[in-house]
Design a protein that fits this description.
Elements (H helix, E strand, L loop, with lengths): L27 H17 L4 H10 L9 H13 L1 H11 L9 H16 L4 H14 L6 H13 L1 H10 L1 H5 L3 H10 L4 H9 L5 E4 L6 H10 L4 E3 L6 E4 L16 E3 L6 H6 L6 E4 L6 H9 L4 E6 L2 H14 L4 E4 L14 E7 L14 H4 L2 H18 L3 E11 L8 H10 L3 E3 L5 H6 E4 L2 E4 L9 E8 L5
Helix pairs in contact: 1-2, 1-3, 1-5, 1-6, 3-5, 4-5, 5-6, 5-7, 6-7, 10-11
Bound molecules: S-adenosylmethionine.
């Protein structure tokens, strides 16, 4: 196990930006570590990573503004390796740390993350992490923090050997999830785990109604941002190194959006025609709905979602991209509350799921998902399918999508639905990207995480045969 290449933030060998001034509660490098520890502890206590980090970053004093990328890197990285770092830290402690000091335990994990996975000068990492205990108002823990981190430095080689010899430490997945991945993908589970542990690329969707991909690539090059076209996905570009979206040329003008290449397959598979009525039943934040409209603005698109706040994001995205769709708040499992009775030619069901295909983007999934969630999510997906099927016109098409890699939510879900609905026939999906990167999986195709540098997505197509409703 080698320290990872840090592509998203600049490597800082001294852990301290020149010229940064002192701030209340500590110097900036120490305060950055304390902020990361607070975010990690909040996620451990059940908050989502996005929410925890957004709150902590928005409360940063101006002197820490330049540390955002480092805080994000340490928070994401510590959570990515949580199931390795937590047992290691615990094994270094003489007695367990109290619940009320969860931030301190998280700080030790942040310290271990720096020493095992980041290219930070070890002594600077130790010094600033020890100082971070003071920022957390745990001055009493400075000695213990120092002793534990220095012991890791002394014992680094045997610890790396211990990690390499222990599959659970090396792969850093919860045991139940690793078992499920092994069962589902006996030939691919190691590659899947490795992909889950890698930093994800930043991939863009070019609004082809506004600019060609080649022209946008040139604009990126002109702005000093290196990128390459994703083979077989005509709208997708992947950056060689992530940048802030605001620095992307034409972002505010709607020329480009952030979206993984696997997610960009949905609109191409649907290939909606002008005048067709299309329902995106779980639309927020609107990535796939926007892509459908970018390809064919004359589609009559209804973007439905249960979550009012997330629908705001759909509104913002449509406005930025210059798109017109009908945005509706409602429960897709209960169309009586919002459906006007007119059938849809196409339905996109991008169902709420375990998100086991996008762990590389959301490392907190490892902490928050439980085995019980899988059955609960599969039952809710079945309810959504059953409720939406009657809304489809005879001859119409339903595209079922998840960002899961578990068969219960994917191939088995489709098989069970087709057994319940004899009027649901498989619609053979075809896309050049599937030829190299996807596995046939029951009625549909599974893109595994990391294949073609894409997220893990499942796609299945159903068409309603004319005989019955
Ligand atoms: C995977 S996300 C959709 C992502 C979206 N299609 C995109 O490409 O940007 C799933 C969405 O389903 C919504 N959702 C969950 N249960 C729902 C329900 N019963 N009815 C409608 N929307 C629901 C969630 O609020 C969430 O926004």
């Amino acid at each position: 196990m080698k320290p990872e290449n840090r592509s998203s933030v600049c490597p800082r060998r001294d852990g301290c930006a020149p010229g940064t001034s002192a701030i209340p509660g500590g110097r900036t490098p120490a305060a950055a570590r304390a902020a990361a520890a607070r975010a990690v502890a909040a996620v451990q206590q059940g908050r989502s990573l996005d929410a925890a980090l957004a709150e902590i970053v928005s409360a940063l004093p101006p002197a820490l503004a330049g540390e955002r990328a480092l805080i994000q890197e340490m928070t994401y990285g510590t959570l990515r390796w949580h199931f390795q770092l937590l047992p290691l830290v615990s094994s270094f402690l003489d007695k367990p740390i109290k619940e009320s000091d969860a931030d301190l335990k998280a700080l030790l994990m942040v310290g271990f993350y720096q020493l095992l996975h980041m290219r930070v000068a070890p002594h600077a990492a130790v010094k600033e992490t020890v100082e971070a205990a003071v920022v957390l108002k745990k001055d009493w823990a400075k000695g213990m923090t120092n002793a534990v981190l220095r012991r890791l430095l002394r014992e680094e080689l045997p610890i790396r050997a211990r990690i390499a010899a222990d599959e659970h430490l090396a792969l850093a997945h919860p045991a139940w999830l690793l078992t499920r991945i092994k069962t589902a993908w006996p030939d691919d589970w190691r590659a899947i785990a490795a992909a889950n542990n890698a930093r994800p690329p930043l991939t863009l969707r070019v609004h082809l109604g506004k600019v060609t991909r080649a022209a946008y690539l040139e604009r990126l090059t002109g702005a000093g941002i290196a990128a390459h076209a994703v083979p077989d996905v005509d709208s997708a570009l992947t950056l060689e190194s992530p940048v802030a979206v605001e620095s992307l040329p034409g972002f505010a003008a709607g020329e480009v959006s952030v979206q993984d290449a696997a997610a960009q397959l949905a609109a191409a598979l649907l290939d909606a025609r002008p005048g067709e009525r299309v329902l995106d039943a779980c639309a927020a934040p609107g990535g796939k709905a926007a892509h459908i409209l970018e390809r064919t603005p004359q589609v009559a698109l209804v973007a439905l979602d249960l979550d009012t706040r997330r629908l705001e994001r759909v509104r913002e995205n449509f406005a930025r991209l210059g798109l017109a769709g009908t945005i509706v708040q409602g429960d897709a499992a209960d169309p009586s509350g919002w459906w006007d009775g007119r059938p849809f030619d196409q339905i996109l069901l991008d169902a709420p799921c375990s998100a086991t295909g996008v762990i590389r983007r959301h490392p907190d999934i490892r902490l928050h998902r439980t085995p019980a969630d899988i059955g609960r999510l599969a039952a809710s997906q079945a309810r959504l399918l059953d409720a939406l099927w009657p809304l489809l016109a005879p001859g119409g098409k339903l595209l079922y999508v998840t960002c899961s890699i578990l068969p219960e939510e994917n191939a088995q879900q489709m098989a069970a639905f087709r057994a319940r609905r004899p009027d649901a026939q498989a619609w053979a999906l075809g896309h050049p990207a599937f030829e190299c990167t996807a596995r046939p999986a029951g009625t549909g195709f599974q893109v595994l995480p990391g294949a073609g540098d894409m997220d893990g997505f499942y796609y299945a197509g159903l068409t309603k045969i004319l005989a019955s409703s």
